[in-house]
Amino acid sequence: MKKFSAILLSVTMLFTMLLAGCGQKETSSTGDSAEKPAAGKEEMTELNFYMMNSPVNDFDRVMKKANEIIGKEINAKLNLILVDSSTYAEKMNLMINSGDDWDLSFTANWGGINFFENAAKGAYADLTDLLPKYAPQTYSRIPQGLWEGVKVNGKIYGLVNYQQWGTAKREGFKFRSDLVEETGFDWKALKGKPTIEALDKIGPFLGDALAKHQGMIGFETSSIESLFASNPLLWNMESVGDTSIPGWINLDNPDKVINQFETEEFKKYTEMMRDWFVKGYVRKDGATVKDTSPDRKAAKFVAEKTGSWPDSIEYPGNPDASNMSMTKSAGNAPAVTVSTTRTMIPAGAASTAAIAINSDSKHIEKALQLVELLNTNDDLYKLITLGEEGVDYKYDENGKFTMIEGKYNFNFNEWQLGQSYSPNFTRTNYDKNKDGEIQQATQKLIYEADKTAEISPVTGFVFDPTPVKTQVANCAAVTSEMIPALSSGSVDPAKTLPEFLKRLKTAGVDDIIKEKQAQYDAWKAKK
Predict the structure, then answer these.
(1) What is the pLDDT of residues 300-351, one digit of tens each?
(2) Distance in angstroms between the alpha carbons of the first and the last residue of the chain
(3) Chain segment 438-485, per-residue pLDDT in tens
(4) Residues 53-79: pLDDT tens digits?
(5) pLDDT digits (tens, 9 = 90+) for 186-207
(6) What is the distance between the alpha carbons of residues 18 and 296, in angstroms, rounded to a whole number?
(7) Angle at Cα 499 formed by Cα 493 and Cα 503, nearest 5°?
(8) Are residues 196 and 184 in contact, defined by beta-carbon separation less than 8 angstroms?
(9) Angle, in degrees to the nearest 10, between helices 378-386 and 59-74
(10) pTM summary value
């Protein structure tokens, strides 16, 4: 593989609730159960698949059983390599640039993983013709428009990890329902409100709740996730190309590319986060902490950003929205949700979670067969993502799904491994009771919405950063340094925001906006 020059882009992540912890060494498992091929039989293929995840208990036990299925079905062995989320993008880009040996990897348009850049440079295999042949169900069972979102120059370079909760997005907020009742917070009044207006109403609720529960955290902030920079839809905007590169559009004026950090929305957001920081509504180390999943699992958050919908107003009793993130099995953090945005399939929906195959892999067809197996063999998929029933999880006397403490736990990262969606909704841990029936009904509603939701005006556009690669790299250095502090409230925006905007100007942000506008206009003219 050619050596690629790295363009290190800073970005904040869209699904921080799903991030793994940082600091651990990578782990891998092939399982060692696959037998040597008999005489005359095709030699078993070993496939290296890289993804983000924290260490997983009993990983080798489960992967051994998984490889029994994989070996039997496609005569292959899966070496699933887990890399800490804080170093994953850097590691994968380094491996790509160095021409290292790998077969499959989780890829995305965020977190510095650089799906479009790597695809454009030839790091990922062209799957356009191979996909329908070697992974026909993976290709056919999801909305066809999603494949446009993983194309570069008309070619497919990623396998969309379509999830049971659908692709159409409606952003909003989630609140501890017990604290809502305790404080009398009118959370329903936030429905459909602009984000700044919603945050303005949320602030007093955080203060009231924290006054009575001082060990909790009001709202989640981290160095990885920015409520603004990671979530354009929350601000009625959409990124033009990769979210991490400055240059968005306002959905009410979709023809003009703007610097989103110069908007009044960003200014007001930083001011509000500063106010919350001073009042103690967010954690003091929000600008540096990478992994907030321990706090989620410990049910410490009073409120959080969510993409869960239908929400608790539209669909009361929806079990998917009934607990704070990562706390469902604990049952100790009941929640209500409210959506505030339009319903839209974002341009980056398909590339938010996908699998790429190395263009230099010697086993491209076999890798596609593996993805097809992961996406269609429910037993295999549930084994890797949930473990073994009765050993790692169980259903109690009321039919409620429960993880068994201390056993195998895939850390909510099934979205990186493949498609959790299937036409009959058979690939996930629905409760075996009335709640489970409601969940499945909700998922069917969401899947139908995917067929009718508003489509992002930027869908299909791919920004080529080559003409401004120096400016992109310079701006990336500025945003990676300053966005976490501004987004967490740990600095005073009255002083820091003008400095940030000035440094972006010096780094060449206006050149990027101009280039994006030119490419965007040319793309629209050809449609």
Answers:
(1) 999 999 987 788 888 887 777 889 998 876 567 999 999 999 988 888 788 8
(2) 33
(3) 888 878 877 887 877 888 999 878 888 889 999 999 999 999 999 999
(4) 989 999 999 999 999 999 999 999 999
(5) 999 999 999 999 999 999 999 9
(6) 10
(7) 140
(8) no
(9) 160
(10) 0.67
Beta strands per DSSP E along 115-171:
151-152, 155-156, 159-160
Of the candidates 141, 99, 32, the one whose C-alpha atom is nearest the C-alpha of residue 418 is 141
Q: What is the spatial distance between Cα 410 and Cα 412, in angstroms, rounded to a whole number? A: 6
Percentage of residues of the chain with pLDDT beyond 70: 91
What is the distance between the alpha carbons of residues 399 and 329, in angstroms, rounded to a whole number? Answer: 12
| Alpha carbon distances (Å) from 453 to 106, 314, 319, 456 | 26, 16, 23, 9
- Report d(CA 365, CA 377) in Å as an integer: 18
User: Within 13 Å and on the Cβ side, how many CA atoms surround 351?
Assistant: 30
Between 365 and 152, the higher pLDDT residue = 365
Helix axes 493-507 and 469-488, enclosed angle (nearest 10): 170
Phi-psi region of 446 (alpha: psi -120 to 50; beta: other; left: phi over 0): alpha
Q: Is-contact 487 221, C-beta < 8 A?
A: yes
